[in-house]
Amino acid sequence: MAESRIESDGSEIIERFRAPAFIREDLTRFALTGGSLAWGRPGLDVKYRSLATIAVLTALQRSDALREHIGLGLDNGLTPREICETFFQCAIYAGFPTCVHAMEIAHDVFEERGVGE
Fold first, then answer.
1. Which residue among 35, 101, 110, 111 is least enclosed by CB atoms within 10 Å?
2. DSSP assignment of 27-59
3. pLDDT higher at 87 or 21
């Protein structure tokens, strides 16, 4: 199984949580512990776990988490086309405006990383 950024110790994402400083580290540890239970399971490569996560975050309209997971998806081997095709699939079930919003977020991430055009 390919290694994922999600398996890190979390030190690079602690400051990203918008929570009071006195609890931010505990929140990060909680998120990583729960995440490692899902992301570390056998049977599904991290690339496809990223794809599933991106689809769910799109449908739930979780913009900040979607932005983060688009980057993780790229790191885990997804292509910009695979990510955008996932948004099209979500449009059927989550609505066209949701798809458009996800595309806008992806455009920004792709532009920041110099990929996808």
1. 111
2. HHHHHHHHHHHHHT-TTS-HHHHHHHHHHHHHH
3. 87
Q: Residues of the chain with pLDDT > 70: what percent?
A: 85
In this model, does residue 99 exceed pLDDT 90? yes
Per-residue pLDDT, averaged over 74-86, amounts to: 97
What is the per-residue pLDDT for 51?
A: 97
The length of the chain, given as a count of residues: 117
Residue 109 to residues 19, 42, 44, 53, 73, Cα–Cα distance (Å): 23, 29, 25, 16, 11
64: domain CATH number is 1.20.1290.10
Structural domain range at position 32: 5-113
Amino acid in the structure at residue 95: G
Total structural domains within the chain = 1
